[in-house]
Write a structure and sequence with these properties.
Elements (H helix, E strand, L loop, with lengths): L6 H8 L2 H22 L12 E2 L5 E2 L14 E7 L5 H4 L16 H4 L23 E4 L4 E4 L3 H4 L5 E8 L5 H10 L9 H9 L9 E6 L27 E3 L17 H22 L2 H24 L6 H7 L9 H13 L4 E6 L8 H25 L6 E6 L3 E6 L10 E4 L3 E6 L7 E3 L1 E2 L6 E3 L2 E2 H11 L9 E3 L2 E3 L16
Parallel strand pairs: 3-9, 3-10, 6-14, 6-17, 7-8, 7-9
Antiparallel strand pairs: 1-2, 4-5, 6-13, 10-13, 11-12, 15-16, 18-19
Helix pairs in contact: 2-8, 8-9, 11-12
Amino acid sequence: MTDPATPLGELGLNLTRRRFFERGGHLLGGAALASLIAQGAARGDAGGAAVVGSDGVARVPGAIGPHFAPRAKHVIYLHMVGGPPQMDLYDYKPVMNDWYDKDLPESVRNGQRLTTMTSGQKRFPIAPSKFKFARHGQSGMWVSELLPHTASMIDQMCFIRTMHTEAINHEPAITYMQTGNQLHGRPCLGAWASYGLGSLNQNLPTFVVLVAKPTNTEQVQAIGARLWSSGYLPGEYSAVSFRSAGDPILYINNPAGVPAEVRRKTLDGLAALNQRTLEQIGDPETRTRIAQYEMAFRMQSSVPELTDIAAEPASTFALYGEEAKKPGTFANTVLMARRMVERGVRFVQVYLNNWDTHANVAVRLPMQCKDIDQACHGLVQDLKSRGLLDSTLIIWGGEFGRTIYSQGGLSRENYGRDHHPRCFTMWMAGGGARGGQIHGETDDFSYQIVKDPVHIRDFHATVLQLLGFDHERFTYRHLGLDFKLTGVEPARVIPELVA
């Protein structure tokens, strides 16, 4: 009998009946894990070929498996932190030229909530976009002059002009976009994809985060690991964050004087101790710790090869731009994302800050667009030339849009824009998204949606569909409830977005 004075005994006294039954399940999982470790892999990181079931769906070891054949096997999610101004980029509103410096009609605003940054303004003067627009491609999509490379591939892209959210400030809005909830503690989209589809490689993480540094840094927003957390999913489904300078991952390399053989022996000993702890206590985080140690050991050889772009041909940098040679730039980051997908990384989340254009749109926005324009075009064309675009879903967008009225001073040549959650634009390419699609319409002020709204829940449901999951059935039991990315409110797949 366990001594109640010991930590293990104290834990046993505190176990509820529910915890007792959960513990039994963990012990079974531990036995399965021991078998995987003997083969040099841990749950969620097992590589190897997918197994095709009788339903025709390929399932990768370590995954729960999709509900139907996925269109996308990888995701590269490019999140523009701060909220790009949709009317300056993709949501062309020429009528606004006649409204310059006139007040936003109350019939348009309709008493809706504003942020504290503009709620005290005496006026809400209309600020037409100072940038020229032109139509492109067979779809006739309007695109700003700031994005010439993007405009050239418009028929490969799927635009959603009617995204909307309830969140009006950055922290809840980014969290909502990433996790399906405005509160912290929920798994992000990348963690759900990792949990559902598992790994396609043995030597790199399933889910990776890269944070690019913008050329202009006037107003960056705080972002952190809460956005790429696994939440209530097992910890092994959290992202691994790669740094843009110095060692890509801290502490992954052996200390001076410690050879690989010694490190391997040390890890074997730790694995045995952790396995014993797992069998005794049943804490799933112990299983995560074992998996992380093993992955870190394998990454000591795989990461240097991944991050060494010296072998890339000159044609690569002609495609992405010379900035791709500089670590930490957006161009370099998306090139790294391509290299990761090429090596079997399932989900790559990229963040680019400084889109929070409360002022100085005339200077900041061109710099932001220069950072992304050629790089995004290069990414799409590079994946296409390598036969990876059809299986890789690229997502681009922010957490909300911007207001048609100016925050602060207004002139024909410069203005600022406040947060606007009621309509904003996102795009997708590859991975089963319908190229050349322009979904939804907003009013003349780019303020309200007039046709085909798409809520964040609908967007998540559609992305999960492309990954092979019915969002209603893709759940994880936590605290006695079946949680899902799309939550409890109604959500629907948008069929027009799927090829």
